[in-house]
Amino acid sequence: MVVYGAHRLCALLRWWGLSMAELPQSKHFQLELLAEDVWAAIANDGGAAWGNAGIVDLGERVIVFDSMWTPQAARDLRAAAEQLAGKPIAYVINSHCHTDHVMGNQVFGATTDIITTKRTQELIVSNCRETLAWWRASGVAHIAAQERELEQQQDEGQRQRLGLKLQRERQFVAALPEMQLRVPNLTFDSWMIFQSRRAAEAISFGMGHTESDVFLYLPAARIVFVGDLLSVGNPPSMSSGDPQRWIAALDQIEALGPQVVVPGHGPVATAAEFDLLRQYISTLIAMADTVVGAGGSAEDAAAQPIPMPFDNWNYPDIYADNMRFLYKWLIKKGN
């Protein structure tokens, strides 16, 4: 199994009687065919999706992996899944507790089960309610501050990134009046199997990016949807989990032998991206440890230059937050 190039994708679509124009379209994401009846929904820059999602037609039942950031993106995702599979959505799996992967839960019907681990269910209740409360209280002021920053920004690359971020956040704020938190109604501890014409496995190795992360593994196709256990071209936020256990989780996923990896953010990838993320985490731990050893502060850690090859990734502010977190994490481990 390899990620299909454009010519191979077109050939497959012709073989199945589809054209590129007949694939469901959305301004929030692009659909990518990974294998027969398996699609990735890759979030568009500036859209209201933010995080990626997946659609898997098992035969008798359909799984959607993650529900995106807003109702408007999730409505398009649901419509695309139902159009592609020709049947209702049986399950939505939430990979973890952050709003950019679960706030679309509300658009799926009452007959659709929302599934995650018991710990993530608890974290969705606390994390999402807190996040929504912040956006409702501070979202308009936050957008205004971001607009002022954009006006003052001179670097063209930074202007473009900030502009896309603003476009996405404006859509989130606009959707706040209709947003409702739908909490997963089915939970598991570490493993759940879905068996039909093809098998799928929802697996959790526990703490990593957050206190509890779920990925979806398709053993026959050797495809994994990993949520924010992997970001491609973006620094992942590290402040909700444990970096050492995160590395261990990546090792365990890689041991399954996946050939196609759908990250929580960024383009469809291969398992080679795990190496780069492990390098990122290990490098930042070592840098933060040097600051701790020298008697520096969390702000000293955040001020360290972004190391190569990560200095061309988007969202450099996440790097600074990660360094502050790692500084405090190391201090706590040392006590």
If you had to describe this structure to a student in words, what would you say it looks like?
- With 335 residues, the chain is α/β, with parallel strands linked by helices.
- Helix content is 43%, strand content 19%.
- The protein has helices spanning 6-15, 71-85, 99-102, 118-152, 156-175, 243-255, 272-293, 298-302, 316-334, and strands at residues 29-35, 38-43, 53-57, 62-65, 91-93, 113-117, 186-188, 191-195, 199-204, 214-218, 223-231, 260-265.
- A seven-stranded mixed beta sheet has the order 1-2-3-4-5-6-7. It has a five-stranded mixed beta sheet with strand order 8-9-10-11-12, covered by helices on one side.
- Strand 3 (53-57) and strand 4 form a beta hairpin.
- It is globular and about 60 Å long.
- Mean pLDDT is 91; it is low at 1-8 and 17-21.
Summarize the model shown:
Helix content is 43%, strand content 19%. With 335 residues, the chain is of the alpha/beta class.
